[in-house]
């Protein structure tokens, strides 16, 4: 299968270079190029490419909003963002707009072809040099807004929750953890208050949903 590609970038030298390199691969064909975001949206509608390689900083309409418009009109298309920006905000917004890949312009050409292969298989691709940044930003976001079990409950409360969900009695949990029955009862009350869940059956469902235990 030949992947039909539209390149959206306002730097002619980059477009010409990409076209030349991509067309050395018989499985890739550049069918159009756009120098601004509005042209990218129009050409995507007219040419129906399989893949758009989209610069983030485009005149007229930025690449993030152009990506959003393109995918609203044709969700089957794939978009790889190609940018000089390694700032987490640009990466997050590009991915939120529907891009399934994000590469830095400094990336080697081999990485672009690897990204194309990956996204055409239905997977996402992040430039190796920014993957670590994305993960760190994601962790920081979870720490700020997290409402999951690992944010809400202490490690000891999670141990008690897991034991309860696995069917252990209060006495058995006390023996497992080396604490008194009264301490386990206190932990259980704290867990129920924090989660606003007031039965062992519902606690078990919650623990399964959060990955604390399995069926």
Describe the structure.
With about 220 residues, the chain is α/β, with parallel strands linked by helices. It has two domains: about 5-140, 3-Layer(aba) Sandwich (Rossmann fold), CATH 3.40.50; about 150-210, Winged helix-like DNA-binding domain superfamily/Winged helix DNA-binding domain (Arc Repressor Mutant, subunit A), CATH 1.10.10. The protein contains eleven helices and six strands. It has helices at about 10-20, 35-45, 65-75, 90-95, 110-120, 130-145, 150, 155-165, 170-175, 180-195, 200-210, and strands spanning about 5-10, 30-35, 50-55, 80-85, 100-105, 125. Strands 2-1-3-4-5-6 form a six-stranded parallel beta sheet, with helices on both faces. Helix 4 links the parallel strand 4 and strand 5. Helix 2 (about 35-45) runs parallel beside helix 3 (about 65-75), helix 8 crosses helix 10 and helix 8 crosses helix 11 (about 200-210). The chain is elongated and about 75 Å long. The two termini are about 45 Å apart. The mean pLDDT is about 90.
């Amino acid at each position: 299968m030949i992947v039909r590609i539209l390149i959206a970038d306002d730097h002619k030298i980059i477009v010409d270079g990409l076209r030349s390199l991509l067309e050395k691969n018989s499985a890739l064909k550049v069918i159009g190029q756009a120098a601004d975001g509005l042209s990218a949206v129009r050409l995507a509608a007219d040419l129906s490419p399989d893949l758009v390689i989209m610069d983030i900083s485009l005149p007229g309409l930025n690449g993030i909003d152009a990506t959003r418009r393109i995918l609203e009109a044709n969700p089957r298309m794939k978009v790889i963002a190609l940018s000089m920006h390694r700032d987490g905000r640009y990466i997050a917004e590009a991915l939120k707009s529907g891009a399934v890949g994000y590469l830095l312009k400094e990336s080697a050409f081999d990485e672009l072809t690897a990204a194309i292969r990956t996204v055409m298989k239905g997977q996402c691709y992040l430039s190796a040099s920014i993957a670590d940044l994305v993960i760190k930003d994601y962790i920081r976001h979870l720490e700020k807004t997290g409402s999951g079990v690992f944010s809400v409950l202490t490690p000891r409360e999670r141990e008690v929750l897991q034991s309860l969900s696995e069917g252990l009695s209060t006495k058995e949990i006390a023996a497992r953890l080396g604490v008194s029955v009264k301490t386990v009862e206190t932990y259980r009350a704290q867990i129920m208050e924090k989660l606003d869940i007031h039965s062992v059956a519902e606690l078990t469902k919650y623990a399964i949903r959060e990955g604390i235990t399995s069926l």
